[in-house]
Write a structure and sequence with these properties.
35% of the residues lie in helices and 23% in strands. The chain contains 15 helices and 17 strands. It is an enzyme of class 6 (ligase).
Length: 466
């Protein structure tokens, strides 16, 4: 706490009750008053004690106020006997995946849920899971990679350029994209997001800001990618003539910035919302509380940061390739939205699922070898206006490593006319579900407007490919 000498007995002498509020006050003052003199700290603590209701919702000291107003011991929450209503789309979904959703539907805050056809098991809410709650947000229901998204840029470059300048395009992908924990750009963009007040309001975000600046415009590992390929539009409904265009498609999230936000608030949620063992990953934060409000602000900032990263990725590539942007489509998953369903405001978690409200545009990729789909949402209420975020895994990463070989992947990619830079056997195209079957299973959720066929794919890994 720097030079500040504050102990629990000092807070007791101010008149604080001998309960959890003492520990909360010590922790909060450590975060928000480091470097302040003891007189200032005591005056703030006295003011909160005198009128705690005036500080509820305050980002700095609201947690102390809540501890004073709610000084009873946190009790274990029990699951409901009945599940909230739900709908499952698709048939090739494992029982383990369904069980994860069933557990989430028994939370006392759950209102409705759904599984998308790309669903497979994950931590807490399954990938492809949708869960609507009342005034509660579940950090693990959002996921670790907050605001992960797809971003498609359609350029005015003739599609013939893809074959004629293949070497130039490969070089651009290799030089102007960065992946994984350690690759960063030498020059960092001065983006407006770093001027947001939220960075200064929440100490965790202030501490993480240098990391966010350093990782701006980079992509994660695993299934994250940047691809150059062929966009085919079936009609002019997107404002461009039907035809084939050169496109850039990226998939990544909020990097280490979002991951550390998620980990911190998952711990906080588990501490204040104890649940049965099988449901512990579903610990929630009440949005009427300081922690709930704080997480909501941090989550939204992480989502905006992920979008800014994609903006920078595409800016760098378009500058290297040439041409102008004609259209951009972006949709995200691993997030929670405030939405009204059947006249009721709910918190809709989509973990590995994407919004598909009426008229909402999105891009649903398949794998490094197969075409993805440009879609428009139909606003299906049974899916909570959601759709899949991809094809979904048929085999886990561990299974893919053991089942598929580099030579098999290279052979398939050659047949499909796809060049891979980086990548691992974990992301073998054969490890994913059939995208055609997935799209057929959600024909009531989205309309197909076009396709994206990858031609040059960049992922984390050796530059020469798997």
């Amino acid at each position: 706490m720097g030079n500040l000498k504050l102990k629990g007995k000092d807070i007791l002498k101010l008149g604080y009750p001998n309960n959890q509020s003492i520990n909360v006050a010590l922790e909060v003052m450590k975060r928000h008053a480091a470097g302040k003199n003891i007189q200032y700290v005591k005056s703030v603590l006295k003011a909160i004690l005198a009128h705690p209701q005036d500080y509820v919702g305050d980002l700095a000291f609201g947690q102390i106020a809540e501890a004073l107003l709610c000084s009873t011991k946190t009790e274990k929450r029990e699951l409901s006997a009945q599940r909230a209503p739900f709908q499952i789309f698709g048939t090739a979904i494992a029982e383990e995946t369904k069980t994860q959703l069933y557990t989430a539907l028994k939370l006392p805050v759950s209102v409705a849920g759904a599984l998308m056809p790309d669903a497979h098991s994950g931590y807490g809410l399954p990938i492809g899971g949708v869960l609507a709650t009342e005034n509660a947000v579940i950090p693990y229901g959002v996921g670790l990679d907050i605001g992960c998204r797809m971003c498609l840029s359609i350029l005015d470059i003739p599609i013939s350029y893809l074959a004629g300048a293949k070497d130039k395009l490969e070089k651009a992908l290799g030089e102007h994209t960065k992946f994984g924990m350690y690759e960063t750009h030498k020059s960092h963009v001065d983006h407006e997001i770093f001027e947001r007040d939220t960075f200064d309001l929440i100490p965790l975000l202030k501490r993480l800001k240098p990391k966010a600046i350093k990782q701006m415009g980079t992509s994660g590992g695993g299934n994250h990618f940047v691809e150059i390929g062929e966009v085919t539009l079936s009609d002019a409904s997107l404002g461009l003539p039907a035809g084939t265009y050169l496109g850039i498609l990226s998939h990544s999230g909020s990097r280490g910035f979002g991951a550390e936000i998620a980990q911190y608030y998952v711990r906080k949620a588990v501490e204040q919302c104890p649940l049965p063992r099988e449901a512990q990953h579903f610990a929630w934060l009440d949005l009427s509380t300081h922690l709930g409000l704080e997480y909501w602000m941090a989550m939204n900032l992480a989502g905006d940061y992920a979008s800014a990263c994609h903006e920078d990725i595409h800016r760098r590539l378009i500058r290297a390739i040439g041409g102008r942007l004609r259209l951009r489509i972006e949709n995200h998953h691993n997030f929670a939205w405030k939405e009204v369903h059947e006249g009721r405001e709910l918190i809709v978690h989509r973990k590995g699922a994407t919004p598909a409200g009426e008229g909402v545009l999105g891009i649903i990729p398949a794998s490094m070898s197969e075409k993805g789909y440009i879609v428009r949402g139909r606003g299906n209420s049974e899916s909570l206006c959601s759709a899949s975020h991809g094809a979904g895994r048929a085999f886990s990463r561990a299974d893919a490593r053991n089942r598929f070989t580099q030579s098999e992947i290279k052979k398939l990619l050659k047949q499909k006319g796809v060049t891979l830079i980086g990548g691992t056997t974990e992301e073998a195209p054969m490890a994913y579900k059939d995208i055609g079957e997935v799209m057929n299973a959600q024909s009531e959720l989205v309309d197909i407007l076009g396709t994206f066929q990858p031609r040059i794919v960049r992922m984390e890994g050796l530059r020469s490919g798997v």
